[in-house]
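Page 37, continued from 36.
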């Protein structure tokens, strides 16, 4: 019998989510009771995909999305102002004037219940510290927040220690524009260790 695929994520308007295959692999290979962590959730499209996939799998998986959700018109004008190239501005105008309120609207509108999604509104390094008690329960960490080399390097060191053997560490934006991602990953794990899938990368642990 063909496994049902997540559908609710399609109700959230975004064109940045292109790593469904990595999330499918993470859910399929995760042992019962594992934790799946997404850093950088924006409007929640990828987080909802992962949460619904975890629900369908019926393995008592817990999904955490970590994001500061701190983008506002005053600190990120292009995201909210059409005249500055912000294609998302109309969405924000319709669903409040902050990234978190827009995220909350879309996630709540999916009515995903019982909901396996936990939302952590904080930076990645702070969140990683809080997972110390769940050492080696994390089956996947997906990094798609800050793309600066120095920060990604800190994230890899902070989160990598908690990923269980047989788990996955992965992320988005392996591109020339965000050169710091590739540099940090290769510095920690070695050149050629990451499998690149489109704009994303994945390393089995």
């Amino acid at each position: 019998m063909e496994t049902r695929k997540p559908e609710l994520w399609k109700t959230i308007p975004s064109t940045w989510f292109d790593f469904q295959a990595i999330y499918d692999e993470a859910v399929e290979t995760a042992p019962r009771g594992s934790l799946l962590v997404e850093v950088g959730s924006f409007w929640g499209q990828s987080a909802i995909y992962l949460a619904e996939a975890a629900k369908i799998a019926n393995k008592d998986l817990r999904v955490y999305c970590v994001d500061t959700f701190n983008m506002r018109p005053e600190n990120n004008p292009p995201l909210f102002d059409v005249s500055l190239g912000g294609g998302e501005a109309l969405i924000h105008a319709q669903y409040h004037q902050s990234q978190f309120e827009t995220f909350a609207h879309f996630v709540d509108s999916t009515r995903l219940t019982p909901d396996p999604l936990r939302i952590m509104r904080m930076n990645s390094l702070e969140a990683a510290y809080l997972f110390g008690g769940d050492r080696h329960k994390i089956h996947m960490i997906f990094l798609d927040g800050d793309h600066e080399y120095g920060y990604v390097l800190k994230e890899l060191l902070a989160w990598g220690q908690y990923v269980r053997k047989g788990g996955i560490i992965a992320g988005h934006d392996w591109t020339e524009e965000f050169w710091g991602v590739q540099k940090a990953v290769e510095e920690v794990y070695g050149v050629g260790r990451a499998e690149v899938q489109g704009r994303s990368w994945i390393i089995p642990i």
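DSSP finds eight helices and seven strands in the chain. Flag for discussion at group meeting. The longest strand covers residues 163-171.
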